[in-house]
Specification:
The protein is of the alpha/beta class. It folds into two domains: about 270 residues, 3-Layer(aba) Sandwich (Alkaline Phosphatase, subunit A); about 110 residues, Phosphopentomutase (Alpha-Beta Plaits, 2-Layer Sandwich). Helix content is about 30%, strand content about 20%. Strands 10-9-11-1-12-13-2-14 form an eight-stranded mixed beta sheet, sandwiched between helices. Strands 3, 4, 5, 6, 7 and 8 form a six-stranded mixed beta sheet that branches. Helix 7 packs parallel to helix 12. The chain starts with a strand and ends in a 17-residue tail after the last helix. Its cofactor is Mn(2+).
């Protein structure tokens, strides 16, 4: 069957167990969903994800979320092939463009030549320059930044340069211009970085600093055509919700919505579902990752999953017979694991339409590009041949 509308919903960082190559990333033993279930000790309530098969796709069900005898749709897992475990890698691979070569990371801080150029362009000094949790480094250096007007520059285990500043000290427009300039410094060939992230925060002191929703990702331009490009070129209407537009640097997106939060993102989903259109809506909900995964907060992560699940119920009720919903993730970020970085995990794959008459397993798909290949086949669009569609398996 072909569907009029396809909604691809990415639960950012909601992994479902260590990938076979997790050892390369020092992530053996990671399991985002499994450890959240353990933390809640049987009290994690996600009935809509449960009936879609969120535990059926696992070897061991999530604690408190047993597998169901007959899911309402199809379930499986996806396994990444990209060289990294960042959001850019995951989303690009979903859309038929695996990242084959590792991008630069900076476990010992950034080269002086890059920092000097940022400082000269901005007229501001640099503080930080180390891998660190965003909330921690802002708590440590935020008051200094407010007094001096310096830029807090830091990284993580991923290929990112993050620049934090208090919104009252450095206006957003200025911070964004600094990040845009920084983007030009690391597009290769010497240094190639996946994302430059503006990290504005507010608050009077270190005990009350809060990062705001004015975060903005300046992503490496896609190195080739993605499935979204092929869809757009074929006249298929494409919608991006959340950081989708940032991840693809605006390529292939007809209509974009910025999210203030997961719930704001789901408001956008409800709005788009009420519209009469034919096409593909690609959604990212980032709070799981930014608010709870990196902060190693299983309580908040689990509550965010339960809050999302309630909104998912509304989506399922609103779906039309010719709608298809695909739910997945881009990587893991296990709040029960060491460190504060993304974790190399397999990700869930859930598929549902009210028109489905059967259910079953989609197995383990690799690469993530099977996701995009399915969307392409649905709209009779030819891509670059990466990935294998599972559209024919949805009955």
């Amino acid at each position: 069957m072909k569907y009029k509308r396809v909604f691809g919903l990415v639960l950012d960082s909601v992994g479902t167990g260590a990938a076979p190559d997790a050892e390369k990333f020092d992530d053996v033993g990671s399991d985002t969903l499994g450890h959240i279930g353990e933390h809640f000790a049987g009290k994690l309530q996600i009935p809509n994800l449960q009936k879609m098969g969120i535990s059926n796709l696992r070897e061991t069900p999530i604690e408190g979320v047993p597998a169901v005898e007959t899911p309402i749709g199809y379930y499986g897992k996806m396994r990444e092939t990209s060289a990294g475990k960042d959001s850019m890698d995951g989303h690009w691979e979903m859309m038929g463009l695996p990242v084959k070569h590792a991008l630069n990371t900076f476990p010992n801080g950034f080269p002086k030549e890059i920092l000097d150029k940022i400082s000269a362009f901005s007229g501001r000094k640099i503080i930080g320059n180390c891998p660190e949790s965003g909330t921690k480094i802002i708590a440590e250096l935020g008051e200094q930044q407010m007094k001096t007007g310096d830029l807090i520059v830091y990284t993580s285990g991923d290929s990112v340069i993050q620049i934090a500043a208090h919104e009252d000290i450095i206006p957003l427009d200025e911070l964004y211009k600094i990040c845009e300039y920084t983007r030009t410094l690391v597009n290769g060939p010497e240094y190639t970085v996946g994302r430059i992230i503006a990290r504005p925060y507010v608050g009077p002191d270190k005990d009350h600093f809060t990062r705001t929703a004015n975060r903005h990702d300046f992503t490496l331009e896609p190195t080739g055509k993605t499935d979204i490009d092929y869809l757009q070129e074929a006249g298929v209407h494409t919608i991006g919700i959340g950081k989708i537009n940032d991840i693809f640097s605006g390529h292939g997106i007809d209509e974009g919505y910025h999210n203030e939060s997961n719930m704001d993102g789901m408001d956008h989903v409800d709005h788009v579902m009420a519209e009469d259109f034919t096409g593909f809506c690609f959604i990212n909900l980032v709070d799981f990752d930014a608010m709870y995964g990196h902060r190693r907060n299983p309580e908040g992560f689990g509550q965010a999953l339960m809050d999302f699940d309630k909104r998912l119920g509304t989506v399922l009720d609103q779906m039309k017979p010719d709608d298809l919903l695909l739910i997945t993730a881009d990587h893991g970020n296990d709040p029960g694991f060491k460190g504060s970085d993304h974790t190399r995990e397999q990700v869930p794959l859930l598929a549902y339409s009210p028109s489905m008459t059967t259910s079953g397993s989609l197995g383990t798909r690799s690469p993530f590009a099977d996701f995009g290949a399915t969307v392409l086949e649905n709209f009779d669009v030819t891509g670059n041949g990466v990935g294998e569609s599972f559209l024919s398996e949805l009955k």
